[in-house]
Design goal:
It is a single chain. The protein folds into 2 domains: 25-40 and 294-385, no CATH class; 49-282, TIM Barrel (Alpha-Beta Barrel), CATH 3.20.20. The chain contains 9 helices and 17 strands. The longest helix is centred in the first third of the chain and has 25 residues, at 2-26. 30% of the residues lie in helices and 20% in strands. Helix 7 (237-250) packs parallel to helix 8 (270-278). Strands 2, 3, 4, 7, 8 and 9 form a 6-stranded parallel beta sheet that branches. The protein has a 5-stranded antiparallel beta sheet with strand order 10-11-17-13-14, with no helix packed on it. The protein has helices spanning 2-26, 57-68, 98-106, 130-139, 142-156, 175-183, 237-250, 270-278, 289-301; strands at residues 32-36, 45-52, 72-76, 110-113, 163-165, 188-190, 219-220, 253-258, 284-286, 303-307, 314-319, 330-336, 343-345, 348-349, 365-369, 372-378, 381-385. By secondary structure, it is α/β, with parallel strands linked by helices. Bound molecules: zinc ion.
Length: 386
């Protein structure tokens, strides 16, 4: 008797469990939109690297980055034949770089603008003076702003030029100059504060800049260099790595910048040691600067709306009114959904992701983490769950 009761109880419990397991697959109402993730593919943290100037060492830097899977932004000055006295640090004949930059773009890096002629010569001391302002107004011309942009579009195959870097860090704080940069179509401009005073070493930004047209970074990874009496502490790889670890732990954006002419290459050099430390983490998004700023806007401006369940299938509209030439990247949407469900974007089935590292910004895929479903898609699409 007692055994039979236990048995009956067990059977009914199993039936109830089966119902719980089976019911959601039968009801598309089981698909629930949870929210947009902070970073693409629900990454925990982000790594961004920016590289300045058109020296031949840009090629060595790009090769080292590819060796460790780091994605970055190459700020190139586009003057075809700079005067020989300008070629040592900041300029090289840029046509030597274009083939490598084209390959870099194909491989998920970005080329940003660093003016045409890299205007840098001005009195160093008095950034509030009329002379300084006059320098900025005279040098931030269409020729420098649009000329460099157009050369990058022409030579790299990149669809858009998102980023600007201020040559020698000059003029970044002027509203008038920021407006000119925005008018030329750039969505973000990286600064380089106070090299002569050592202010460039660790601005310590760990997220998106509050003013994207005066955007700092986390730290430099380079020896003291340049032509302006630059100061920097001795290279300490443990300290560089510890700063990355701190940002990673907090789930921030770790953005480090380098001048290739101030690096040591090879696996025993400080640069590659640091690259090795930060590379190939499955919960980090490796992405250039422009696309990660574009992503921020995409996430803020994209609306996800449930549509009526046509034929019993859950559907959502993913839309924004952003310019698709600029904001061509994906975003990631989290859902609660049954494990067996397939997701279609505008009728096309999204593949389940198998790659371990997130190192692109415009791919489309799904990824499951137990009962959480992450759908990474470009916006302005209709998602259907079948
Ligand atoms: Zn420069």
């Amino acid at each position: 008797m007692r055994l039979a009761t236990t048995h009956a109880l067990l059977v009914s419990t199993i039936c109830a469990l089966l119902l719980v397991v089976i019911a959601p697959t039968a009801q598309t109402g089981a698909v629930q939109f949870v929210g947009k993730t902070k970073y693409l593919n629900n990454a925990r943290a982000v790594v961004v690297h920016s590289i300045d100037d058109s020296t031949k060492l840009v090629v060595d830097t790009a090769d080292a980055m590819d060796k460790y899977g780091i994605k970055g932004t190459f700020f190139i000055s586009t003057e075809m034949d700079p005067p020989p006295e300008e070629r040592f640090f900041n300029q090289l004949q840029v046509w030597l770089l274009w083939p490598r930059m084209r390959k870099a773009v194909e491989n998920g890096h970005e080329v940003g603008a660093h003016a045409v002629t890299h205007p840098c010569s001005r009195p160093q001391s008095d950034t509030t003076s009329d002379t300084y302002r006059a320098f900025c107004e005279a040098n931030y011309t269409d020729f420098e702003l649009k000329g460099s942009r157009d050369a990058i579009l022409k030579h790299t195959g990149q669809p858009y030029v998102w980023t600007w870097a201020y040559p020698c860090g000059h003029c970044a704080t002027f509203d008038l100059i920021q407006k000119r940069i925005a008018a030329a179509g750039y969505i973000v401009a990286r600064n380089y504060p106070g090299e002569a005073q050592g202010l460039h070493v660790r601005p310590d930004l760990q997220t998106w800049a509050s003013n994207p047209y005066d955007a700092p970074y986390t730290q430099v990874v380079q020896k003291a260099g340049g032509r302006r009496g630059a100061t920097a502490p001795p290279i300490d790889v443990a300290s560089l790595d510890a700063k990355f670890d701190e940002v990673y732990e907090k789930g921030g954006i770790y953005h480090f910048m380098s001048h290739p002419q101030s690096l040591d290459f090879g696996p025993e050099g400080f640069y590659e040691k640091h690259l090795a430390h930060i590379s190939r983490k499955p919960d980090v998004w490796y992405v250039p600067m422009g696309p990660v700023y574009a992503y921020h806007t995409i996430v803020e401006r994209t609306d996800v709306r449930p549509l009526s369940n046509a034929g019993g299938k859950a559907r959502f509209a993913v839309s924004n009114t952003l310019d698709r030439r600029i904001y061509n990247g994906s975003l990631t949407l989290e859902f609660n959904a049954p494990g067996s469900i397939a997701v279609f974007a505008d009728g096309k089935k999204l593949a389940e992701r198998t790659k371990a590292v997130t190192d692109r910004w415009n791919e489309e895929y799904i990824r499951r983490e137990s009962d959480r479903l992450f759908v990474t898609v470009r916006s302005n699409t209709t998602l259907e769950f079948r």
